[in-house]
Amino acid sequence: MNSYERVKTALELREPDRVPIVELYVSPNVQSAICPEARDYYDFFDIMGLDAVYSTYFYNFEPAEDGLLRDEWGLIYKEDDTAEFLKVPIKGPISSMEDLKNYRPPDPDAPWRLFTLPDVVKRFKGEKYIVFHCRDVFVYPYQLMGMENFLVACILEPRLVEALLDMVLEVHERLVRNAIRAGADCISLGDDYATKMGPLMSPETFKKYFYPRLAKLVSAIHEEGGKVIKHTDGNIWKLIDMLVDTGADALGPLEPDAGMFLDEVKKKYGDRVAVVGNIDCKHILPSGTEEEVEKAVKELIKKVSPGGGHLISSCNSIHSGVNPLNYLAMINAVKKYGSYPINID
Amino acid sequence: MENKSGIIKAVIKGNVAEVQEMIDFVLDANLMTPDEILNNHLIPGMEEVGKRFRANTMYVGEVILSSRAMHAGINRIKNYYPDNSLNKKGKVLIGTVAGDLHDIGKKIVVIFLRTAGYEVIDLGIDVSPEDFAVHVEKERPDVLGLSALLTTTTVWMAETIKLLKKEKLLKICKVIVGGDPVKPNFARQIGADGYGRDAPDAVRCVNRLLGYR
Ligand code: B12
Known about the structure:
- The structure holds two protein chains of two kinds.
- Chain A is α/β, with parallel strands linked by helices.
- Chain A is built from 14 helices and twelve strands.
- In chain A, the strands form three sheets. Chain A has a seven-stranded parallel sheet with strand order 1-5-6-9-10-11-12. A three-stranded antiparallel sheet of chain A has the order 2-3-4, with no helix packed on it.
- The longest helix of chain A is centred in the middle third of the chain and has 24 residues, at 158-181.
- Chain B is of the alpha/beta class.
- The A-B interface holds A 78, 80, 82-83, 86-88, 90, 147-148, 151-152, 154-156, 195-202, 205, 235, 238, 282-283, 286-287, 319-321 and B 14, 54, 56, 59-62, 64-65, 99-105, 107, 124-126, 150-152, 180-181.
């Protein structure tokens, strides 16, 4: 079984030959420490035998006033030299229906939008499972209005929120269709809906605005023949029924520190979704010992992998704070314990 | 809810107009003093909001609405406090440390501090130790709050405190720290004066440091 088939089989809720190893993002400093021979970002995935490759969208930045940057959504950023791959805007362009009416969203069909996906497809199609990581219907809306204004608008200005979400949905629906047509096997929908304590919005608010649009996005991806992994950080027990009902093929990575234990999720929903995750990247991977990492992997596989429908990864990403030796220990432990049939006592 | 006053309920619902109307009514009819309104109604209302936020039965949007209702209430009674003592319990400067772009939690801390009567200046995200030092010197706050959500950036909390110490700015203000990876032990180790595990706790911490109840 090659990597592609391994991931596909797990996403179809069956047992492949070994638990697939996937990772949304592996920080370059971790990569070069483990695998100095890698010449580009994807060499690492190849050489280390990860089973999926992730690529993501690209939006241009241009200089804005006061030495700031503006992206194609009109979001304003501070130039930042932090090592991570997610940027956080400090200002958005929309605060009223009037603003929204005059707003032009970025063109999802722009030739640079799919960024490295075409190269990834050329290089890995049929061999590794190709995942395109994309935002869904929460993060851009809140960034465009500012988090506080947006969450208040969800309560006081439903018409504005509905229109804003529909605009973002339209962009993303075209983007994900384009990605699948360009050769991606799967879309990872990346917006975080929760924190450690629970959802950022009430379940009623989620149901009214986000659930129906997420479901639409999932249907569009399925229509194109792609699969869907829905990611979210945080404690999502209050939303999980709806997330599963969107029709997503898998959930994760989910956050153990926020109470999202994969064995529990699998017990309740394993007949409907696969689970991705979730070796702790807050404590164990940055500052645990290699033995602790191996033990965590072994335990996770024992509890979650039997029967299939499990893809192993960190609980978020291999960010720059992860100890490279621990990540190596994690990969090796999956290879050691993850072959089917799982046999761990 | 049953035995809560109308004003408390309106604060919890985040209903600005109701809070204002009720306060106008009880003041006009001489049913309550401004002190009673504040201490027996507005503050308990916001305390209940804090409890529910902590229990995750109220969410960020709802909490912001409640804080607006609370402010509307304060505005109705503030003329009775001619020294403007209501909004002047103290000045807090707050920011997310260098390399860290997370600010949702910090903004909630700001909201709770403001509703508790503090003047708050938010320096934003990715604030370097040098920037913190410059602003402490300029604004002379009573308390400086540092927020970090990444394990890797918590070191900048220590660096910031070191620099403040070196430039003798710790005499001006107390320093409190918070954010998911920050633990009370760590706070003590790096020489912070206080730690808050969430927004209501941040208020308690600042109150304690500045000698309020
Ligand atoms: C939203 C989010 C983001 C957003 C941030 C948007 C924004 N404007 O803030 C985005 C998507 C941009 C993001 C980016 C990243 N993130 Co992030 N993110 C989160 C998430 C889901 C929620 C954080 C949050 O807002 N919590 C809600 C608030 C209410 O809680 P809080 O912040 O803890 O604040 C409360 C208390 O801590 C306290 N408090 C906070 N500050 C202060 C200050 C003082 C003085 C006091 C007294 C109290 C106090 O009061 C607050 C209110 O009650 C968490 C997951 C989680 N479980 O928390 C990950 C998380 C924090 N992110 C994480 C990571 C790894 C990243 C990235 C590195 C990912 C990547 N590979 O690129 C980047 C880093 C970017 C950067 N350089 O900062 C990890 C951090 C691991 C670690 N400990 O090191 C987490 C824990 C996810 C995980 N599963 O591992 N993230």
